[in-house]
Design goal:
Blueprint: E1 2-3, E2 10-16, E3 23-29, E4 37-46, H1 49-61, E5 72-80, H2 84-89, E6 93-97, E7 109-113, E8 117-119, H3 126-129, H4 134-148, E9 153-157, H5 162-174, E10 178-182, H6 185-193, E11 198-201, H7 207-218, E12 220-225, H8 231-238, E13 244-247, H9 261-267, E14 270-273, H10 276-300, E15 307-312, H11 316-325, E16 331-335
Parallel strand pairs: 9-10, 9-12, 10-11, 12-13, 13-14, 15-16
Antiparallel strand pairs: 1-5, 2-3, 4-5, 4-7, 4-16, 5-6, 6-8
Helix pairs in contact: 4-5, 4-10, 7-8
The protein binds NADP nicotinamide-adenine-dinucleotide phosphate.
NADP nicotinamide-adenine-dinucleotide phosphate (NAP) binds at residues 48-50, 134-135, 138, 158, 160-163, 183, 226-227, 248-249, 251-252, 274-276, 326-328.
């Protein structure tokens, strides 16, 4: 094992006090990297919807005494387990995602697989770099899926999200028109101001009619939906025949939604799910590294993710509450020190 600096034996990390309880900071032993793993001194980590869903379900899936939240972040590799990749990353500033429920990014240190880290280079800040895995790679995948399946344009729901802004940016770069669905006029105005061309407000009475018009005019035969509310059923009716629907989130919190089988049969619509983790496994290391290089290059140029606030680890609960109060206001980051 290689170690390029001295540090304490213990670290502060965020834990869930109890089921449906508050996030608190506790002191625990710094984990040691096994072969093919690295220890990262964390710099920053975002609060993402996937973190909140994981925290909500943590009592069913994990031991709360050892569960540390946080699925992605940035930091410096300070210790390397055996293996070529860990040694290669030692001393480097990296973007990283967590492999273990017992070692999340909302901590001073995180142990993860070396294959889940990517060097940030010197043009990307710790803050922007901490958000460079989950959403940018998902946005790249959406554009790739759209192109591979020869859809002329795409529709994205909850498009005022950080991910939505990236899909729009990449769509512009790759010549794919993006129909952005948002849920209120404030979000529609924000998107208009930032240069989006096709924006639909789902709270407008004409929404379904306008969706049908835009989708048919642009040939938008793929819908990416992260809301998954009963409105989806009406949206299916508005899509052109033979469209694809990809569900990638559940922001509505609905446990089930009913679909009219006749709509699927008559219109030949297929519905599937998307999870970045599965996509990354399918891609393999080489393709993932190429995608990460592309993200780093985007982040060094025109991809700048809006941040509404940065909080120390011991204010994790406050950070989550502020984020939940205004998700479209920008990402909330944890600075991984107290
Ligand atoms: N499947 C995957 O692999 C994968 C990967 C990356 C992201 N995602 C998903 O992508 C989505 C966006 O992530 P993000 O990090 O970009 O989010 P974000 O920046 O935090 O933004 C979330 C957006 O969703 C809107 N929203 C929240 N609840 C809603 C509801 N019930 N109906 C309509 N809109 C709602 C928010 O609007 P308000 O401000 O009005 O609340 C906000 O604009 C999330 O669902 C996330 O889980 C999935």
């Amino acid at each position: 094992m290689s170690d390029n600096r001295a540090f304490n034996d213990t670290m502060k990390a965020v834990f869930l006090e109890k089921q449906e309880g508050k996030l608190v900071v506790r002191e625990v032993k710094i984990p040691d990297p096994a072969p093919n793993e690295v220890l990262i001194k964390m710099a920053a980590a975002p609060v993402n919807p996937s973190d909140l869903a994981r925290i909500r379900n943590a009592h069913k899936e994990f031991d709360l005494a050892t569960f540390i939240p946080g699925l992605e972040g940035s930091g410096t590799v300070v210790k390397a387990g055996k293996g070529i990749l860990p040694r290669l990353w030692l001393g480097k500033r990296v973007a990283c995602s967590s492999e273990y429920s017992t070692s999340g990014s909302w901590a001073e240190y995180m142990v993860t697989k070396a294959g889940m880290c990517f060097p940030l280079g010197n043009k990307v800040s710790d803050e922007q770099g901490s958000m460079s895995l989950v959403n940018p790679l998902t946005a790249l995948a959406f554009i790739e899926i759209t192109k591979q399946n020869k859809h002329k344009a795409l529709i994205n729901n909850a498009a005022a999200s950080a991910l939505g802004r990236m899909v729009e940016l990449l769509g512009k770069k790759r010549g794919i028109p993006v129909i952005n669905i948002v849920r209120n006029q404030t979000q529609a105005d924000q998107l208009l101001q930032s240069g989006s061309q096709y924006i639909l407000n789902s709270s407008e009475p004409s929404f379904i009619h306008d969706l049908a018009t835009f989708a048919n005019d642009l040939g938008a035969t793929i819908l990416f939906d992260s809301v998954c509310s009963p409105l989806l059923l009406k949206m299916l009716d508005a899509l052109p025949d033979s469209s694809s629907v990809i569900i990638y989130g559940n922001l509505s919190g609905e446990e089930q939604i009913m679909v009219n089988p006749r709509t699927l049969i008559d219109k030949g619509i297929d519905i599937s799910g998307f999870f970045l983790g599965n996509r990354s496994k399918e891609n393999g290391l080489f393709k993932n590294m190429m995608n990460l290089r592309e993200v780093r290059s985007l982040m060094s140029s025109d991809l700048n993710i809006k941040v509404q606030g940065t909080y120390p680890l011991n204010k994790a609960q406050e950070a989550v509450d502020i984020y939940l109060g205004n998700m479209s206001g920008g990402k909330v980051l944890l600075k991984c020190t107290l």
